Amino acid sequence: MVLADLGSKLSVALRKMANHTVIDQEVLDAMLADICKALLQADVNVAQVKQLRTNVRTAVNFDNLASGINKRKLIESAIMTELCSMLDPGVKPYEPKKKRPNVIMFVGLQGAGKTTTCTKYAHLYKRKGWKVGLVCADTFRAGAFDQLKQNATKAKIPFYGSYTETDPSVIAGDGVAKFKDEGYEIIIVDTSGRHRQEGALFEEMEQIAAATEPDDVVFVMDSSIGQAAHDQARAFKEKVKVGSCIITKLDGHAKGGGALSAVAATQAPIIHIGTGEHIDDFEDFEVKAFVSRLLGKGNIAGLMERMKEADVDLEGAEMMKRLASGQWTLRDMREQFQAVMKMGPLSNIMNSFPGMQGLDFRESSQRIKRWMTIMDSMTDAELDDPKLMSAERVLRIARGSGYYPSEVIELLEQFKMMQSTMQKTMKKNKKLGKQTDMRNMDSHTVAQMMQRMNPQMLQHLGGINGLDAMMREMEKEEKKLKDK
Ligand SMILES: Nc1nc2c(ncn2[C@@H]2O[C@H](COP(=O)(O)OP(=O)(O)OP(=O)(O)O)[C@@H](O)[C@H]2O)c(=O)[nH]1
């Protein structure tokens, strides 16, 4: 990920404070110098970096500090506040409303990733149960309609466009009217881009906006454009009512800071970030969680909220009941996987853990998807009674799912491992009189499962100790959620 480098430099700078027994102005200045250097190297706007330094110095005034105050914590929180305010224009983004049409117009330069982002955005809302349609109002780039059509068809999203009409505002107006008539809730209008901010592009954007009266205008910006991002963002903002931003290609090798800091020029909040070419490579953007991740802190609170939203049975009350009576089956495992997948791409989930940023979970996601497909080829009896599994059945399931028998066996092994680790934990906890859930499995058991998902995971978490700390943090957050 683009910002992994910036993130690690920032957290190294903060961690350096631990080497000093006394935190004074000299230590603060040295740390600020490292932080500012890292931000500038990541293309963050110079004026904003200067502002950050001044504000942190003001917030941490050593002459007026009460005795006994934890200076390290104070400095960390001042940096966090400043990084957040840099990315937060203090305006709430438009929130689409259910059971009425919400017209969302996408704008941006050519190649910024508008068309791809429109489909990702559509897919996200479709997954949440909204009725979504896509309108292609790009008549400038040959093949734009075909691209949108192809993306939309793949994601099973209705689309509207024309090969013959040359006026994009007519297509946009007609498409929006059609989807409105048909009761669509999210109507996305993809507009054309140009290589530069030129008059023709802006004129066309204004005409499309007039024809569609969008509820929100989303400015799509490529994260690799560096310092130029600031002027580009401002130029768009001056011409159309940009209400929110999406930064794309944060998975690439560019530095990313330019686009992120350009948000200040639009005074419009970032709502999502694009982290790859695939439709699921799309993440919600929440400033505090993003900065926490950047500083290597993870976002356990956000993760717990998402688990709750997706109805993930964390305590596994039902599952544990079945397990206790020796009934934990492949069907239960499939349900658990399904619940996790409902929370979004695995990389988004795993990146919420402290220390997990920058790991590639694509392979783990693919493995889980593969297992789900394999389980779809099993009969009800097999799902409910894994003991039925025989060589002939494995061959039939492999043929039915289109995978190799070795892959079916890999799934069965994973199932056995999960079943036996859970049963062991159950027994141990029963002895101790504790209730069993995912979080009071011992760290070694969870570590074993994590290693299976992605061998680098444990190392990134800081070994068993890091895992212990993460489990404790999850417990705390869940308690907070329950107390709410
Ligand atoms: N790696 C990566 N590639 C992306 C991302 N978003 C878009 N792309 C790629 O960027 C290229 C341009 O994307 P498009 O969606 O065609 O760009 P556009 O802004 O619609 O372009 P015009 O229609 O010409 O204005 C494509 O190859 C996309 O696959 C992203 O988040 N990460």
TrEMBL record:
Limits of the Signal recognition particle SRP54 helical bundle domain: 2-87
Major subcellular site: cytoplasm
Membrane-spanning residues: none
Sections of the chain in a coiled coil: none
CDD domains per UniProt: SRP54_G
Gene Ontology biological process terms, A to Z: SRP-dependent cotranslational protein targeting to membrane, translocation
Keywords for this protein: Cytoplasm, Endoplasmic reticulum, GTP-binding, Hydrolase, Nucleotide-binding, Ribonucleoprotein, RNA-binding, Signal recognition particle
Catalyzed reactions: GTP + H2O = GDP + phosphate + H(+)
GO cellular component, one term: signal recognition particle, endoplasmic reticulum targeting
Single GO MF descriptor: endoplasmic reticulum signal peptide binding
Domain SRP54-type proteins GTP-binding residue range list: 101-296
Subcellular location: Cytoplasm; Endoplasmic reticulum
This protein's domain notes: The NG domain, also named G domain, is a special guanosine triphosphatase (GTPase) domain, which binds GTP and forms a guanosine 5'-triphosphate (GTP)-dependent complex with a homologous NG domain in the SRP receptor subunit SRPRA. The two NG domains undergo cooperative rearrangements upon their assembly, which culminate in the reciprocal activation of the GTPase activity of one another. SRP receptor compaction upon binding with cargo-loaded SRP and GTPase rearrangement drive SRP-mediated cotranslational protein translocation into the ER.
UniProt name for this protein: Signal recognition particle 54 kDa protein
